Amino acid sequence: MTDVLIVGEGLAACVTMHVLNNRNLTFKCIGHPNQSSCSRVAAGLWNPIVFKRMTESWMAHVLIPEMKRFYADAEKRMGTRFLYEMPIVRALPNQEAQKSWNIKSVNALAEWIQAADGLPDDAWKFTSAFPCRGYVNQTGYLDVNAFINATLKFYAACYQNEIFKYPQLTIHAHSIEYAGLKSKYIIFCEGYRVSENPFFNWIPLKPVKGELITLESETLTFTNAILNSNGFLIPQTNGEYTLGATYTWDFNDEAPSLEGYQALKEKAESMVKTPFKLKAPRGGIRPASSDRRPIIGRHPVYEPLLVCNGLGAKGVMLAPFILKQLFEHITQSLWLDDAVAIKRFYKKYSG
Ligand SMILES: Cc1cc2nc3c(=O)[nH]c(=O)nc-3n(C[C@H](O)[C@H](O)[C@H](O)COP(=O)(O)OP(=O)(O)OC[C@H]3O[C@@H](n4cnc5c(N)ncnc54)[C@H](O)[C@@H]3O)c2cc1C
Question: Residue 64's closest CA among 80, 79, 48, 43?
């Protein structure tokens, strides 16, 4: 009997594998890539600042140290690089915004942001969007594809590439059985496809489609910062850039669309003043929850059934902390933060 059977093979499932391994818990994983592309297309950014309100992102001071520790440890364990720390250069529309940024950089947000004066200008000289700018520190991106590929390879002996079939699940009081596998717990990390899961289809998701594109330019050469104005531009290790992202609440599928392409092209034109080409558009559906917080914990009736969902647009930053908390809660009865616990939605479950 294993401790945990994981369903899914996206970011949440892969983070779960490392969290379980760190706690010496055994696991198997059943996942199929065709059900959701979300993690595979993600830009992988983490950012402690909500630019719209110029406030600290929820729990950033806890989430960021934990995520850095977690991914650095996974890099070391698997001998692969996927975490790239670099500042965000944020475009500001006018002198007033610049002044307010500079004030926050020495009080409320001093831990995270700084005034641009005197800082290297490599990335900034390529953009035409706005006259002013500020820097965000302790940011960067996770190469999510590299992290998933490395994780599935590292734990290949525990992984089965197939679609999970719900009717084959038998639930006992303190364990489950699935196609000959016995496990104490099963955790569903299915992204937006949880809507098809008969045990958790009641959790309130508000999925958001997102699209990204690759930008190629011979004259664009910055490698050490992420540009952000009405979109973001992230330098990749192969000399290309990831440009994103769109947010669409009304959609039929996760495939890249003409409207998405147009919106990304406009972002590129407003951000980059050198000639460029756009290629490889891609789309995915973010599993956002109705209150924009993750959803983790036990099923209200079937104790061995667990879920991790609602990672929305911030899975990279959220997953390591909340999954560690979930398994501390399950195995040691430690506290589970009310803001992320599935308990807050139990009243929506009607049996
Ligand atoms: C365009 C875009 C840009 C983004 N940029 C960022 C970013 O910069 N930073 C950030 O933190 N986040 C970003 N995100 C969000 C991020 O991708 C998500 O928070 C995260 O990937 C969600 O991971 P997940 O594992 O919960 O879900 P998913 O990625 O949807 O993974 C679910 C997995 O389970 C599999 N699956 C589902 N059902 C079954 C089944 N029945 N049987 C077998 N397998 C199954 C699916 O195929 C998939 O592999 C972005 C998302 C998009 C779409």
Answer: 48
Measured in Å, residue 8 CA sits from the centre of ligand 1 at: 9
What are the extents of the domains in the chain? 2-41+145-203+290-348, 87-138+208-286
- How many Å lie between the centroid of ligand 1 and the Cα of residue 11? 6
d(C-alpha 284, C-alpha 36), whole Å: 7
Contact 140 CB / ligand 1 (< 6 Å): no
The pLDDT value given to residue 351: 77
Q: Report the pLDDT value the prediction gives residue 222, as an integer from 0 to 100.
A: 86
Report the separation in Å between the CA atom of 104 and the middle of ligand 1, taken as the mean of its atom positions.
33
Calculate the dihedral angle through the C-alpha atoms of 153, 20, 199, 196, rounding to the nearest 10 degrees: -20
Topology of the domain comprising 87-138+208-286: D-Amino Acid Oxidase; Chain A, domain 2 (3.30.9)
**pLDDT value at residue 122:** 66
C-alpha torsion 66→123→238→84, nearest 10: -10
Domains 2-41+145-203+290-348 and 87-138+208-286 share a fold: no
- pLDDT category of residue 328 using cuts at 50, 70 and 90: very high
Strand partners for 286? 208
2-41+145-203+290-348: which CATH topology?
FAD/NAD(P)-binding domain (3.50.50)
162 Cα nearest atom in ligand 1: 43
Whole-model pTM?
0.96
Phi, psi of 298 (to 5 degrees): -90, 155
What does the alpha-carbon distance between residue 155 and residue 152 come to, in Å, rounded to a whole number?
Answer: 5
φ/ψ of residue 67, rounded to 5: -65, -40
* pLDDT tens by residue, 119-141: 556 667 767 667 788 999 999 99
